[in-house]
Structure formats: C-alpha cells, structure tokens
Design goal:
The protein is of the alpha/beta class. It has a single domain, classed as 3-Layer(aba) Sandwich (Rossmann fold), CATH 3.40.50.150. It contains 12 helices and 11 strands. The protein has helices spanning 43-53, 56-59, 72-85, 96-116, 142-146, 159-169, 203-213, 230-235, 253-262, 278-286, 291-296, 298-313, and strands at residues 14-19, 25-29, 35-37, 130-134, 151-156, 172-175, 188-194, 214-225, 249-250, 265-272, 319-326. It has a 7-stranded mixed beta sheet with strand order 6-5-4-7-8-11-10, with helices on both faces. A 4-stranded antiparallel beta sheet has the order 1-2-3-9, with no helix packed on it. The protein starts with 13 loop residues before the first strand and ends with a strand. It binds zinc ion. Zinc ion (ZN) binds at residues 6, 8-9, 11, 29, 31-32, 34.
Length: 327
C-alpha cells in the first residue's frame, strides 16, 4: 500500500471520508474537496488485478449507449440529427428541399436530445475523425461512433479483453496502461474516457496527457460517477460506484471542473446521465420495495428514469458526463 497527497491540489491534509466494506479507506482533501483512496494499492498490483479479472468486469456493465437496440426509425432520426446539426454530411445525400423537410421533422427530436442530455455524446464531425477510446473494454462505445464514420482505436489494460475487442470490433486495440503508454501528440480529434478516470492513479496527469494527444479544439467526452450525488448520500457504502479498490478517486462536479480546467480543457457541456436507474433500484429495494416489481415493470422503470432526470436537474445525478474542448 502507498500513501499519497491529493492528486488535484497537492495538499497532504485530508479528513476521513468513508471506510469501505472491504476495508479500504477513503479520505477527503481539506484543500479542494477531492475524495480518494488513501492508502491505496500500488499500480503494479492494480494491473495484475485487472488481468486476473479477465472479461468479467466488462460483462457486468449495462450497454446503455449501444446503437444495437435502436429500431430502424430511431437510427434514421439519429443519423438525420447528426447530418443536420453535427456536420455528418456523409451519412445522407439530401437535396435542398429534402433538407428543409428534414429540419421541420427532426428539430423537435434534436431539442429533446438537448433537454434530456443525450446530445452530450454527439461530437461534431470535422473531416478525418480520429478517435481514441481509453479503457475501451469490450468496445461498448465503439459501434455508436464507428458506424457514423469515426476511425477508432482503443486502449485496454487487460490482454484478453484487448485481443477480443480488437477481433470483435475490427479496430486497433493497444494493450497497455494509458498513463505510461507512448502515443503521438496532437493526433486525435476526439477522446472517450467513459467510466475510466476514477480508476487511474494520476487523473490530473492523465487528463493533461489526453489534452496533449488532442488537436486544438479536439473533444474529450468524460463520464464518471458523482460522489456529491443524492444516490451516494442515500446508499453510502452500498453505492455501487464505491467499488474499492477499482475506484481510486471520487469526483464531484466541483472537483471535476477544477481538474478539467487545470488540464487545459474548456467545458462545453456538463450533464447527468439519468438512464442508469440501478442506484435508485437499489435504494427502493433497501427501503422495502420488491426488487422483482421494480426491475420487471416497464412503467416503474419509466417513472424512476423521470425521477432520475429531475435529480440531475437539481445537480444531484449520480453519473456526470462532460463534453470538453481542448484549448
Ligand atoms: Zn486537494
């Protein structure tokens, strides 16, 4: 185990925050409020841990932004939104009149996406479209972007997962640790860090590295759990994102914004992803609701999603998503 100072402000002064069920210690920095594991396992042990886990850790995750489940009409609406509002002119060759008709029909869906926050994953397409998916896992984010013209490569610490994803998705997957791997600077138009930053040993250095890999005005989509969420306050040690020793850092909107600013990013959009209702499910189960009823009833799930949406409106959502631009 190693003892560390705050990775965000360098402060060595911290207060006890939470003891996890498996006896890891989380502290809160007295300087900036960042929550992190201290002491923590050194990096070599962490890499071994991922290798030992093989495929199981990626299979548990729910595929929430895959295009597979979309019906054809939804795919057409999504492609039309990308064509009309995000510069994906290669997806359709519409005449001027068809475009006008499309604008009339598609604009309400575009507005819906902006209101619900779904638009945060949409990246404007400007030519080459080179994307790096850091911690790509099984490649659950790959089809969504590959199918609309992005040239994606991935980085994945587990050899078995890297090999399988490269084979299944038909993309290059570099097996290695993002924090130490050597990549050419200013070579990407976009970087995905979906559920990754909380696992890394040095998030500030990692985001600075992401910034150096991006071309100017390149986009980083960063998604991670919010320790300052209602779900955490309700569930504490039962909150699934505590996940020690996998999750070394726990950011809040405040500490995430500070981190991005110090890494050379400007935040264009900041939203809460409300589609994952597993935390609310767990809470209602804990207070006595029947788990089967919550999970199997479509109407209940819809209500929980609406509730989750409003929790996000009040800044209390459990999953933060940032669309940041390199400056
Ligand atoms: Zn700090």
């Amino acid at each position: 185990m190693e003892n560390i100072a705050c990775a965000l402000c360098g402060n060595k002064d911290s207060a006890h925050f939470l003891s996890t069920k498996n006896n890891f210690n989380l502290v809160k920095c007295n300087g900036c409020g960042l929550v992190f594991m201290n002491p923590r396992p050194p990096k070599e042990e962490q890499i071994d841990y991922y290798e030992g886990q093989d495929l199981s850790y990626v299979e548990e995750k729910k595929d929430i932004i895959s295009q597979k489940s979309f019906k054809k009409i939804n795919a057409w609406i999504n492609n039309s939104i990308l064509e009309l509002f995000y510069g994906y002119s290669h997806l359709a060759k519409s005449s001027f009149m068809i475009k006008i008709i499309k604008y009339i029909f598609i604009t309400p869906f575009f507005i819906r996406n902006v209101i619900t926050g779904k638009d945060i994953y949409s990246i404007a397409f400007k030519g080459e479209g080179k994307m790096l998916d850091i911690g790509c896992g099984k490649g659950r984010n790959v089809p969504k972007y590959k199918n609309i013209g992005w040239k994606i490569s991935g980085i994945e610490p587990s050899k078995a997962v890297a090999f399988k994803t490269s084979h299944d998705m038909g993309i290059e997957v570099i097996c290695g640790d993002f924090e130490t791997i050597d990549l050419s600077k200013k070579s990407f138009d976009a970087v995905l860090m979906i559920d990754v930053l909380e696992h890394l040993h040095n998030p500030l250095e990692s985001l600075k590295k992401v910034s150096s890999l991006l071309k100017t005005n390149g986009v980083a989509i960063v998604r991670l759990p919010n320790i300052d969420s209602l779900e955490f306050r309700l569930l504490k040690n039962d909150w699934r994102f505590i996940d020690a020793p996998n999750h070394l850092y726990h950011f809040s909107p405040q500490t995430l914004k500070k981190l991005l600013k110090e890494s050379g990013f400007k935040i264009r959009k900041f939203k809460f992803d409300f589609r994952d209702i597993s935390g609310l499910n767990r809470y209602f189960y804990k207070i006595g609701f029947n788990e089967k009823f919550i999970n199997s009833n479509k109407f209940v799930r819809k209500i929980l999603k609406v509730l989750n949406f409003f929790i996000g409106v009040f800044g209390q959502g459990s999953i933060m998503v940032v669309h940041a631009v390199k400056i």
